[in-house]
Amino acid sequence: MSGFKTGVIPLDGQLPHGVPAGYVMLIEGPLGTGKSFFAITIAATAARQGAPVLFFSFDALPDEVADELRQHGAALERVTVVDGFVAPDEHYSRLKPPIRHRLEAVDARLFIRKLAEFAGEFRRGVVVVDSLNEMLLRSPASASDVIRALKIFTRYTDSVAVVTVHTDMEEIRAVMSAVRHMLDMVIELGTDQEFEKMGVYVRWMRVARARKLRVSHDRVYFEIVNGSVVEIDIKALIKALNKQLAEGLAVLRQGV
Known about the structure:
Blueprint: H1 9-14, E1 24-29, H2 35-48, E2 53-57, H3 62-71, E3 79-83, H4 90-95, H5 108-117, E4 126-130, H6 133-138, H7 143-157, E5 160-166, H8 170-179, E6 185-191, H9 193-197, E7 203-210, E8 220-225, E9 228-231, H10 234-255
Parallel strand pairs: 1-5, 1-6, 2-3, 2-4, 4-5
Antiparallel strand pairs: 6-7, 7-8, 8-9
Helix pairs in contact: 2-3, 5-7
């Protein structure tokens, strides 16, 4: 049985047979590197192919998630968004529109129980958790339980789980390092520091871990263009920057 295609073209190029069912994939990196965009793209791709999608939204309001999925061409009939964007008090909770599935607190136990509610009928689908940060900050020791729950769920529903983590905080990096061995796939996202020194923002992705799969671990540079992840020819970019620099220096010399 073929695996799940992510819809992220450079990543699918690294995984020609797709992501195997039963896998838990971590997408990690600093803020602004595209983790949530990858997660939305993977969820929308699954929905467009008719697979069920279960999306736990901790970092955005559920209607924001639904809007983004629609923008990616996903019909929402097969999508269930669980509201984990918990209001600070009952006054703000009343402002939010009603939703069938929500967590009353950002709590690992509540998340694990809610996930289990879908085990009976959910098959060959994609579970997204965006992101784990607040849950881990509140209860760092819960990380292993959360990953175990996802692994059991995906294994016995022939599904794939996609989890995002913002690694800007040292506490989060330490927690995820302790459970990294439990993850089937780790996708690292980042920005090139050398290009940033020149004022150029260039993102990269790397398959850091892929259990039982032969993949390249090299960086792939990319940009998000018109709602798609597009690979950048880094050598061509360096050549263009060098040309621009040479032309700028020539102009300066003429003015001396």
